[in-house]
Amino acid sequence: MQLTKAEEQIMEYLWQLDKAFLKDLLDCFPEPKPATTTVVTLLKRMQEKGFADHKVYGNSRQYFPKVKKTDYFAKHVNGMIRNYFNDSALQFASFFTKSTKLTTKELEELRNLIDQEIEKKKK
């Protein structure tokens, strides 16, 4: 299940804050801020989808993420690889390295990361 762009924005704030009351979330938004009812509706949908939850403190609810940011984006990237690159991480990597404007330094850092992963897999 995926989040809408608006839900992703709220999740981004939840990941940053770790735990947040509605007021804390509203404070994160730039002007013009969304209506409180809109944010509450989005939070409810996110809870139904299993991405967030809340604890009740008196009349207030403290929201928190149930999904780690890295897990969410890994699932996103894996879906993109499956749907656009014939389930081939190699095709994705080829596209990524050729089609993005990576500097030589960034490509070298990427190579180092790949070399580190190769060493881990060998062990």
Query: CATH class of the largest domain, please?
Result: Mainly Alpha
Compute the number of strand runs: 3
Name the CATH homologous superfamily of the largest domain.
Winged helix-like DNA-binding domain superfamily/Winged helix DNA-binding domain
Cα radius of gyration in angstroms: 19 Å
User: Could you give a short account of the major beta sheet?
Assistant: 3 strands, antiparallel
3D shape: elongated
Average pLDDT, rounded to a whole number, is 92
Order of helices and strands: HEHHEEHHH
Strand residues, percent: 5-15%
Uncertain segments: none
Tell me what the structure shows.
The chain is mostly helical and 123 residues long. It folds into two domains: 5-65, Winged helix-like DNA-binding domain superfamily/Winged helix DNA-binding domain (Arc Repressor Mutant, subunit A); 69-122. The protein has six helices and three strands; from the N terminus they run H-E-H-H-E-E-H-H-H. A three-stranded antiparallel beta sheet has the order 1-3-2. A hairpin with a 2-residue loop joins strand 2 and strand 3 (60-65). It is elongated, with a radius of gyration of 19 Å. The two termini are 35 Å apart. The mean pLDDT is 92.
